[in-house]
Design brief:
One of its GO terms (cellular component) is ATP-binding cassette (ABC) transporter complex. This is Glycine/betaine ABC transporter substrate-binding protein. By secondary structure, the protein is an alpha/beta fold. The chain has three domains: 34 residues; 156 residues, D-Maltodextrin-Binding Protein, domain 2; 97 residues, Osmoprotection protein (prox), domain 2 (D-Maltodextrin-Binding Protein, domain 2). It is 43% helix and 15% strand. The strands form four sheets. A five-stranded mixed sheet has the order 9-8-10-7-11. α2 crosses α14, α4 packs across α5 and α13 packs antiparallel against α14.
Length: 321
C-alpha cells in the first residue's frame, strides 16, 4: 500500500470518528474499553430557606446556620423578618424551612398560653403542641437566655440603690419615668401592660418610647430614657455602662433559642436534624456574648463573625486552609 493511500485512509478514519463524536447522543467514546461513557449529571444541591428576626443574636444564629448548611452541601437562601408574627407565619406557610425561636415566645405569643418558668418544661410543652401543626423543635441551647430584662444606667442604680425592678418601681413613684422598648413588647401577652400591673408601674403611653431593639441600650446610655425593657443577651449592656435589674417578682420567663424546622423539610432532608443539633451543641455563653459584642459595639461583619465562630468551634476549616 503506497503512502498516499495510507494518508487518505487515515484522514477518512479521523473524520468518521470526529463525526461520531459530534452526532453521538450517548456521550464520548472510551477508546481503551471500546464502550460509551455517559456524561455525569450535574449535582443538584438540596435547597433550604432559613429566616431571622431583626436583632443581632438572630442574625448571628442565622448566619452560622446558613454557612454550616452550605458547607454540608445545601443551597441556602436567607430572609430577615421584622417581627415574631411574620417569621412564624412564613414558617407555617412553608415560605421558609427553618429559623431559631424561643419556646416561651411560642408559648405566649403563638399558642396564647402563660409562660413557663422552667426552660426544659417550656421546650417540651411547646414542641409537643407544634408537632401537631407540622413544626419540629430541635435541640435547645441552655447557653443563651434571651429573656427580657430591665436596663438602667449604672450611675442611676448606684445613686439610688436600685437593684431590682421593684426598686425601680418605688423610685419612679411621683416621677416622670421614660422607658424604651420595641413594638412587639407593647402587644405581647407578657408585654408592657401586665408588666406594669405586676410591678406597680404607672407609665403613661407617651412616656414609652418605641424603637428598634438595637437602639435600646444606646437610648439609656445617652439618657434619652431612664430605663429600657431589652434583652439579657444584648452585647452592649456592659460596655455601655448599664446594669440589668433583678426580676425579683419572676415576671420574665426564660428564652433559650432552638432551631425550629418544618416537618416537610426534615422529611425531604433528614440530615438537617443532626447537623443543626451538632451546631447547637457548640454554642457557649461567654464566647457567643463576646461575638455579639463585636457585632454590636465594634461593628464587625456578622457573616464573618459567624464563619469565625464555626471555625473556632471546629465545625469548618478557615478559608485560608
Amino acid at each position: 500500500m503506497n503512502g498516499k493511500l495510507v494518508t487518505f485512509l487515515t484522514v477518512v478514519i479521523v473524520l468518521e470518528l470526529a463525526l461520531l463524536a459530534l452526532l453521538n447522543p450517548f456521550g464520548p467514546w472510551n477508546k481503551e474499553k471500546g464502550t460509551l461513557v455517559e456524561d455525569p449529571s450535574p449535582v443538584v444541591k438540596p435547597a433550604v430557606t432559613i429566616g431571622s428576626k431583626s436583632f443581632t443574636e438572630q442574625y448571628l444564629l442565622m448566619k452560622m446556620t446558613g454557612i454550616w448548611l452550605r458547607e454540608n452541601g445545601f443551597a441556602v437562601k436567607e430572609i430577615i423578618f421584622k417581627g415574631s408574627t411574620n417569621i412564624r407565619s412564613a414558617l407555617e406557610a412553608g415560605v421558609i424551612d427553618q429559623y431559631w425561636e424561643y419556646p416561651n415566645t411560642a408559648r405566649i405569643y403563638y399558642q396564647q398560653q402563660p409562660g413557663i418558668p422552667d426552660a426544659e418544661e417550656a421546650f417540651r410543652t411547646v414542641a409537643e403542641q407544634d408537632e401537631k401543626v407540622g413544626l419540629r423543635w430541635l435541640q435547645m441551647t441552655p447557653a443563651i437566655n434571651s429573656s427580657w430584662t430591665m436596663l438602667i444606667k449604672k450611675e442611676l442604680a448606684e445613686q439610688y440603690g436600685i437593684r431590682t425592678i421593684s426598686d425601680l418601681s418605688a423610685y419612679a413613684k411621683g416621677k416622670q419615668l421614660h422607658i424604651a422598648t420595641n413594638s412587639e413588647f407593647l402587644i405581647r401577652g407578657d408585654g408592657i401592660e401586665p408588666f406594669q400591673q405586676k410591678y406597680g408601674f404607672t407609665i403613661p403611653r407617651e412616656n414609652i418610647i418605641v424603637s428598634e431593639t438595637k437602639l435600646f441600650a444606646q437610648a439609656v446610655k445617652e439618657a434619652r430614657v431612664q430605663a429600657a425593657v431589652g434583652f439579657a443577651s444584648d452585647g452592649r449592656i456592659i460596655p455601655y455602662g448599664l446594669v440589668e435589674l433583678e426580676d425579683d417578682l419572676h415576671y420574665f420567663p426564660p428564652y433559650n433559642p432552638a432551631p425550629v424546622v418544618t416537618a416537610a423539610s426534615l422529611k425531604q432532608n433528614p440530615q438537617i436534624e443532626p447537623l443543626l443539633n451538632r451546631l447547637t451543641g457548640t454554642i457557649e455563653h461567654d464566647k457567643f456574648m463576646a461575638f455579639l459584642y463585636r457585632a454590636d459595639v465594634q461593628h464587625e461583619d456578622v457573616t464573618e463573625l459567624a464563619r469565625q465562630y464555626l471555625v473556632e468551634a471546629g465545625l469548618i476549616r478557615s478559608s485560608g486552609n
